Amino acid sequence: MFRTKRHIVFLAIMVGLLLKGALSIAAVSEEDRIKALYLYNFLLFVDWPEDVIGEDNTLRVAVIGDDTLFELFEPITQKPIKGRKLIVERFDALEDLRSPCHVLFVGRSQGHIAPRILEKVKDRPVLTVSDMNGFTQMGGMVYFKHLACKEHTASHPKRFEINLSAVEHAGLKIRSRLLRLSDIVNQP
């Protein structure tokens, strides 16, 4: 069932993009599609404290440094997820990043300012996610790794790295089903 749900979400995203004309399917790499699916699924398996969601019952996702991911997500903006409205916003610079957001995806192109980005949301219930090597060692919460691997092999058994200390410090909870699929690191 989990796999079928992912495929439905992927198809909905792709149909939305084609109708909107933002990207052609050929322009979207396999890694980008997988990244979008993983990020969407993380929204389903992470719990935020109720008092940070707000009266508008909206889950806000901010994307900085990955226009393709934003364009894959943008068609599902305003769609319900876990009974909440989903808003996805793109930011070009650290200075533009507004609060509150609940998820912050930092593209690998932002490695030069990633520590400053993480400092800006430190001590807030913001799930920080990236495809950047070393992200969890910087204090980020989730690193997508091995996205382009065609098969799950012994050399690439896990596709995520989760900094559980950072997650817990921010007051977030990641469900055990997702933790079992991840390598756990504990970095301050």
Structure description:
- It is a single chain.
- By secondary structure, the protein is of the alpha/beta class.
- 32% of the residues lie in helices and 21% in strands.
- The strands form 2 sheets. Strands 3-4-2-5-6-7-8-10 form an 8-stranded mixed sheet, with helices on both faces. A two-stranded antiparallel ribbon has the order 1-9.
- β5, α4 (114-121) and β6 form a beta-alpha-beta unit.
- α2 crosses α3 (67-73).
- The longest helix is centred in the N-terminal third of the chain and has 19 residues, at 2-20.
- Residues 17-25 have low confidence and may be disordered.
| Terminus-to-terminus distance | 36 Å
| Low-confidence region ranges | 17-25
Enumerate how many helices there are, as a single number. Answer: 6
Biggest β-sheet strands, sense, barrel: 8 strands, mixed
Write the CATH fold name: Rossmann fold
Q: According to CATH, what is the class? A: Alpha Beta
By CATH, the architecture is named: 3-Layer(aba) Sandwich
Tell me, briefly, the overall form.
globular
- Succession of helices and strands: HHEEHEEEHEEEHEHE
Strand content: 15-25%
Brief overview, please?
Helices cover 32% and strands 21% of the residues. The protein has 188 residues and is of the alpha/beta class. It has one domain (2-185): Rossmann fold (3-Layer(aba) Sandwich), CATH 3.40.50.2300.
